[in-house]
Amino acid sequence: MWHYHQLYRLSDWLHNQRSFNPPEGEGSWEQVFEGIYQLQHRNRKKRNELAELIRRFRDGAEAVPDAVVVLQNDLSIVWCNQLALKVLGLQWPVDHGQRLDNLIRDPKFAKYMRRKEFSDALELESGHSVEQVLEFRVMPYANTQLLVVVRDVTRLKQLEQMRKDFVANVSHELRTPLTVVTGYLEMLDSDSLPPPAMWNKAQTTMLEQCKRMDSLVNQLLSLSRIEGAKRHSNDKAVNVPQLLKLIETEAQSINQDKGHQLFFNIDASLDITGAEDELRSAFSNLVFNAIHYTKPGGKIEVCWQRNNEQACFSVTDNGDGIAPEHINRLTERFYRVDKARSRTTGGSGLGLAITKHVLTRHGSQLKINSELGKGSCFSFAFSSDRLISISPLVTSNTASHKSVI
User: Fold this and answer.
1) Any idea where the Histidine kinase domain is (predicted)?
2) Can you give the pTM of this predicted structure?
3) What is the pLDDT of residues 192-207, one digit of tens each?
């Protein structure tokens, strides 16, 4: 009976756990109670350590900028972080125990997982967006499991494509004038010299092509310099009205063959701080683009005004307009809506890229609104911290400069 009573006390303590400490034992049962207590203490300590390790792993997995999924060898999901829910469209805990290749319905992914050769990463277009590219890397984990790390490499792919396009476009832009110059030089190298009239034409053409190459190289150097410049470095006061007056004079010269109506509405009291050469490039690129790409006899309005404590610049035309699918790519290097038309106007496709980087360095961004058949408006604004003097607009000629060409 005494032993039965001790067994009852032990059973009651183990099952009910009213206290972590064991009941007081007598005789040999004291050692039994103490031994079980020490065993439980060690097990509880190990469980706490294991729980802490699991917590740290999950905290670390949540902190990484990639989607993380833990799988069994049969590809069933054990655990995933929050980013995996967003990137892969998983649902937790609904998808716990589901096979990942049943949830990502892509033949390439299924073949990759079945092959079990994970030395190379797998790249797939996201099922949620055709423009998003995901990179899958699979690694053995905890002997019987797999760790899947999914990274969004869309931006890297875009940069890689931009690099390829850049090399191809620069090569093409330089090859065309070089071909012309080489052709004429080979003609001059022949035994019979060309007649004076042909030589004069060749000389003029070669000079034009050399100027074209020089302009392209200068624009590339300018773009590289602007990209590498720090914001606010070498900024100084810029007399924007005077700058726009010079651009207006150049616009008159360019416009002689176009016959556009040019309207310049300039607040003569509105100056800002910035890099004058860069700002001149940004302003002139937009004005001259409007002149070049608007059909003859069009209407172009250039505005430099104060609006809600900001200095706002805009160029509006009534040209053909730009299709929506082109607008987001207009500031890419060498991107052209109409390549044949750009060849005619002499455009290199770098003007808006330069403008974009100039504005970024000055804390602004280019906005493009366009409607096919009605025209376009290119605009940007500088914040109040760049304004030197802001005075209320008045209608007198001393405060505002308006001209019609």
Assistant:
1) 169-386
2) 0.57
3) 666 777 778 888 888 8
